[in-house]
Amino acid sequence: MAAPLPVTNDPDPTFAELIAGRPHIRMDARDGLMVEGVPLARIAAVVGTPAWVYSAGSLRRRTRALTGALGAAGLDASVHFAMKANDNLAVLALLHREGLGVDVVSEGELRLARAAGIPASRIVFSGVGKTERELRLALAEDIFQINAESAEEIGMISALATALGRTARVALRVNPDVDARTHAKITTGRAENKFGVAIDDALVLYARMAASPGIEAVGIATHIGSQITAGMAAYRTAYARLAEMVHAIRAVGLPILRVDCGGGLGITYRDEPAPMPEALAGAIKVTLGGLGLPVMLEPGRWIAGPAGLLLASVVIEKQGARRFVIADAAMNDLLRPSMYDAWHGILPISPIAHHAPLSPADVVGPVCETGDTFARGRALPALPAGELIAFLDAGAYGATMSSTYNARPLAPEVLVDGTRFAVVRDRQSYAALAHGQRIPDWIGA
């Protein structure tokens, strides 16, 4: 069971402030809250609730802002979207059209990337526990790069590649022992984290990797965490250590073709001072720009997070010692508040509700867990049964982390582009919940 969500004394952003900070969302005096040119009430009428809604315009705008910042800094950079943030095929296809590759962490993600039309030459495979089956697929597909995270994995890749008559392009993921000052569950660059190899061991392992049959050693990689909002200091420290590593590799005559900088750039959910991509590009240029090597980035949340929301309906308002707004969305849909104590903006869809009196409310779901709580003490208007609400900034680690807990079908996904929208993933049927299950004969009727 999750810890209770904290109640802060700082005032929450107002409805107007939440809308102003998200240019793809606006309030229409007649149609209510809109994503681009589409009323959310219209989407709810077509697909029901809960439902995920993504803005194509926001995805494009944020992608171009990141790639533009890298280009303006004079960096030879490629961007691979971290699929763990959002693996919807339509989203992936749109981002590929914008010039992005993908970073995958499983066989399933690799197969989805290929199904979305992303060529193997634009796929990077990360992750601390790749299986032999997954590595065989990566080798068979001849993907752009595998990020190896241990001496044991280097041995696995070498043996499999040799047996298959392939050459794997491999980068060594280095753990720089840098505290990114983010949530403990999403920091990945400290010495006690499971990811990568210790920086003190990296040169020896890189040399071993370069000498291994079936492997082309192409570079080094790092990733220090997710939702990093505490400025660029952690990035600069980590990348400076990578630069030292590049010099050490070159000093012993080993090849190195590129540096993988990872991702992790944070966004503003509530009032966090999220850094801009220009700041990240500057940190890369200062630390790695003089090496003469191309760099790679693997953002996920920064691109997709603000572009999506979870549309829900109020089931009932329950009055007692506390005011509870019970929504038809639950922790099985949006897990982040339960798992990370994460804050998400909550907006009523009705234009009338935006000018109604406010009072504190706990916004919860119907799942049989006290941890099924989205917000505590949130200032909201009266929300009778049937009223629509939107959980903001849910485009990353929303649908991908959802489950069918309490036998609740997965919610549909909708992509909005201007004045049009399309269902890009159907709501899961109840029949699908039981698909593949069977009762053995020996149990009896």
UniProtKB/TrEMBL annotation:
Gene3D superfamilies: Alanine racemase, Lyase, Ornithine Decarboxylase, Chain A, domain 1. Its cofactor is pyridoxal 5'-phosphate. The modification N6-(pyridoxal phosphate)lysine is found at K84. Pathway: Amino-acid biosynthesis; L-lysine biosynthesis via DAP pathway; L-lysine from DL-2,6-diaminopimelate: step 1/1. The active site is at C368 (proton donor). Keywords: Amino-acid biosynthesis, Decarboxylase, Lyase, Lysine biosynthesis, Pyridoxal phosphate. The keyword DNA-binding does not apply. Its EC number is 4.1.1.20. Homodimer. Belongs to the Orn/Lys/Arg decarboxylase class-II family. LysA subfamily. Specifically catalyzes the decarboxylation of meso-diaminopimelate (meso-DAP) to L-lysine. This is Diaminopimelate decarboxylase.
